[in-house]
Amino acid sequence: MKGIILAGGNGKRLLPLTKRVNKHLLPVYDKPMIYYPLETLKKAGITDILVITGTDHASTIFSLLGSGKDFGVNFTFRVQDEAGGLPQAIGLAKEFIGGDKFVSINGDNMLFDDIAPFVKAFENGKEKSRVLLYETTREEAAKAGVAVLEGEKVVKVVEKPKDPPTNWVVVGVYMYTPHVFEVIKTLKPSARGELEISDIHNFYIKDGSLKASKLKKEWLDAGSFDELLRANKIVAENMHEH
């Protein structure tokens, strides 16, 4: 299994913090934000990792992460020339992935669950995609990709609904086979002018080849000032408890 960390994007919601610094390098308690998704992949046994970043701050990400030897992993880097959505960024990984299954994680996502059991289930399973779900508040669900459930089965993913059908959101951890690169080629940009990750989820739902696993612990997405502050507080509390 290979891994991808998506660390592009402009971090507009975090200006002026992100004017000179990549969002994923902002501190969350005692570490740069990108260390958290990196640790999530490493704990799951994934050490061959592609980091995809934008042109603006690529050099600072390269100099922070280096070859990966300090982390016990092996990094490869690709640059996404312009913000075209998560599927476009994932599409840049085609050569790196080759014939392997892989896990893609957003660089601003922090998970407290060990995802190793989910990764193992996907590695040994027949499904073409596995997503992770987290139960959040109604307000937070309205800002995310929301999973419509029938029992444990995801029947649809709705992007940023005004009236969320459930509070279960799809977090920024996606597991795919190389088949996803064929799907990405067929996607059309949304009204935002970007390819949407929920279109990939809905493709695999229709195909009958998407499975979902539910997280039991906290999930954080530090994309705004309030989320960044909350992430710092929660990580600090967790550190002091241990």
TrEMBL record:
InterPro entries, A to Z: G1P_thy_trans_s, NTP_transferase_dom, Nucleotide-diphossugar_trans
Listed transmembrane segments: none
Enzyme class name: transferase
Catalysis performed (reactions): dTTP + alpha-D-glucose 1-phosphate + H(+) = dTDP-alpha-D-glucose + diphosphate
Cofactor dependency: Mg(2+)
An example Gene Ontology molecular-function term: metal ion binding
Known EC number: 2.7.7.24
UniProt keyword annotations, A-Z: Magnesium, Metal-binding, Nucleotidyltransferase, Transferase
The UniProt record lists the keyword Magnesium: yes
Record-linked Gene3D superfamilies: Spore Coat Polysaccharide Biosynthesis Protein SpsA, Chain A
UniProt domain Nucleotidyl transferase: residue ranges: 2-236
Superkingdom of the source species: Archaea
Xref: SUPFAM superfamilies: Nucleotide-diphospho-sugar transferases
Family classification: Belongs to the glucose-1-phosphate thymidylyltransferase family.
PANTHER family: GLUCOSE-1-PHOSPHATE THYMIDYLYLTRANSFERASE, GLUCOSE-1-PHOSPHATE THYMIDYLYLTRANSFERASE 1
Protein name: glucose-1-phosphate thymidylyltransferase
